[in-house]
Predict the 3D structure of the following.
Amino acid sequence: MQENCLTPANVVTGNMPEQIQFLVPTNPSACSTDNTTAACCPSGVFNPVYTQPLYFYQATVTGAEGGKANLVIVTTLNDQIFAYDASEQVSGNPCNAAVGYSYWTRNLITDLGTTGDCNSGGAGEPIPNPGQSLPTAGVLSTPLIYSTGQVLYVVGGCESTADHIHHWYLHGLSLADGSDSFTPIDVGNGVYVPSAGGAAGATTGCTVNCTLGFNAAYQLQRAALLLANNGELFIAFAVGGGTGSSETDYSWPYHGWLIGYRVQDTLDTTATFAFASTPNYDSTNTTTSCSNVPSNNNANITNLCGLGGGIWMSGKGPAIYTSGESTYVVVGTGNGGVLAGGSLPGWGSSVVSFLQGTTCTTTSSPSQCSPIEFYTPRNYATLNNNDQDMGNSGVVVTDTLTGGTSELVAFDKTGRGYVLNPGSLPGYSTSDCTGCKFEGSLTAPGTTCNDGTGGGPCDSISSPVYWNSWLFVWPRGEDLDWCYWDSGLFSCQPNTVTYSNDGLEPSGFPGGSMVLSAACTGTDCTLSNSYAILWAIATKSTAVPYVEPDTDPGDFQAKLKAYSLLAAPPQTGTPNFSVDEIWSSPAFLGSIFAQPTVINGSVYVPTYDKGVEVFFPEYQNP
């Protein structure tokens, strides 16, 4: 994004100290109104922030001077929402830090209705032990702000403590005071799609008019939310449950779901859109020929034709693009069943596109919101069997490139890139990388990584960054890869990065979680005419920083690092340039896939143990 206040000249060691902390106490109701009591400080009970902080300029806020304030919205895995003043600090606080001032806080469970119940069965709590090595599952996805109405849309998970039923509630909160704009919606409740066989939420062994029902017990809502320009809000789901003992401890039978609700103009609490990536699961049928999801994830599952295909995308939200007069919503799916060419489709390990405005019946007599087009790579079975799915990094939509087209960009975990022409996705591909416009792979499948794990494919897991014909990708175990659009394709090669050699580099798991900012000269924001900075959250090379660090917190250390792209060449031919580290933050405990926010001269960094940390140059106030 364009950011004229931060340049390689002022983002330097010694000039970017931690200026403010937006702390997230476990019990904010015990805080004084001005956040000056000890109860406002974290007390060793972790309240992790997994979502990207949101910034809103000059919101109408109750109690703010002049009725306006620049807000930073912070959410936590414990279902808490904090609205902080982006620039005001609290004096006299006991937390031994410069603490930001919060205008309001909200607990999505205790504030859910007048009784505080997650369900009529009893009081609720954030979903405990949700799998994927998470301590709890409250607000796991990055919310969004509808700027015209100044409404925060956010999804929080909860479990009834009486009957242990899971729910994912959609809230619409006023930026003014955190009050509900509508009664929270129980996402997926009563949502069905057609299915070839019985599945969770439907009749097992069904043969006629079968349905697959959404079951929150098997799902996690990790991908960021998307509000389309027709007022429809899209919410994506992937795997949930399990014991949390390992990253691949999946809970069966899960599916990839994309569910939409109309939230603007006339609110519709009944889902207007529903898609399941693997709808044709029949627990009684073990003879159907199809591509299985990874056998190493659960050896006891024998028929996986209609399982998996989670839409998680490393926390990235569904993408949206236009072609002609039509608008499309596109997602990437993870390891899952594919019936290539069969009568019972599945869309695991695929890029899937939908025409915006597509409606379907989502009740007990449903109609599937079918894709308008999709792409499934020829080697999907190999990707599935080795947990190398191509939907992990989400889908990037480029601007109009040379030649007059936009492209869709996705990666699988081997580092292979797929650049696809929207409007002509080939479906189930029969040749190697049909539709791809990369000049080779970023890393050859099966190559040995230098991440200290002793080998294996180089994982391209975190989302890439696209800007002005340039694409930046930072796989685990590799240096930064850059790709440049030239002569109708992306030409890619690894780049050499100058590190500070402190043991915390973006080549650790899951790779660099990146954003890019640029101070432009006038309206010319090409890389050769900008002071560009690539920001990346770096982790220890062997760390998996998304479990509660109760044994060795040092294994989960992370830092925010800034890399100068100042020495950019003219954008002709095949460019080459160096990337130099110019600044590094103090260490903190990292949250997996969480991205920083760079805006208005400040950088807002989500952490596992310190809420959100804010960095800006000495002279600058956020």
About this structure: The mean pLDDT is 73. DSSP finds one helix and 42 strands in the chain.
